Amino acid sequence: xxxxxxxxxxxxxxxxxxxxxxxxxxxxxxxxxxxxxxxxxxxxxxxxxxxxxxxxxxxxxxxxxxxxxxxxxxxxxxxxxxxxxxxxxxxxxxxxxxxxxxxxxxxxxxxxxxxxxxxxxxxxxxxxxxxxxxxxxxxxxxxxxxxxxxxxxxxxxxxxxxxxxxxxxxxxxxxxxxxxxxxxxxxxxxxxxxxxxxxxxxxxxxxxxxxxxxxxxxxxxxxxxxxxxxxxxxxxxxxxxxxxxxxxxxxxxxxxxxxxxxxxxxxxxxxxxxxxxxxxxxxxxxxxxxxxxxxxxxxxxxxxxxxxxxxxxxxxxxxxxxxxxxxxxxxxxxxxxxxxxxxx
Length: 344
Description:
Layout: H1 13-28, E1 56-63, H2 68-75, H3 79-95, E2 99-109, H4 114-131, E3 134-142, E4 152-163, E5 177-182, H5 191-201, H6 216-220, H7 228-235, E6 240-245, H8 250-254, E7 264-268, H9 276-285, H10 289-293, E8 300-306, H11 311-320, E9 325-332, E10 337-340
């Protein structure tokens, strides 16, 4: 019998090494103060003092891209999901009051395609650059038999820091103002329902999108917006009390996560225009407002909870950082989320 090698079993170590060399320039582009070593070591090093912290608290977050990844694989449009992966992690970190410092990714597949993996990781590097975080490591795993065809899976891990005593949410009280930040689209939640809605519509992913100048697949792969730099700029103002990243559960379930027990919020659905992508999704699926508001972000990707007297200055800081900002409501004593106005 002939000798069997690891490559015969479906694992190509040379391909993995080639990928590391291909992505080094992308990772280098994300370097920031505190980074101590490049890719390739057994672990990644980061110096908190060099990053400017004196008494830091570390904050960590992990996430994936959900079934949006399946759409990206089917459309062979892989760069955008790298941005999604970073955004889902770092947007959560900033809600705790932390500045994202570094990011690691996990990429698992049956057989490594270096070109496709490079597209994904270059997207991850772009997301890191948007967040001001360094891509300092990761893991690429070839696992024959675990995945079929060109399928792969992604996970991301972000670590941030804040000075002791600066965590959010903090001091939220009745009368505080809710500022909504415009989303870039569906972001990375609700794609199981998106796929069912497209199936119901009878359209193909390659069909022109009824709501955008792009194919339906490309329009629905618009990457998640990275809010980090804008939120950090807002925190430099007086009066920021919390941020809610509007992910799975929508406004209905995420806004309460930053409210003290017993408090609620009044949200005016007429304070912003429902983006065309959501109008199409809701109308095609005949989705009622309650279901939509706990499934999709419906055009608001991040909510800032701010003091009433600081709201104008904080909104200005967010706009100067590139965000579109709406005053969408206020904190109440009701203990629940109450909506007024209409989505459609």
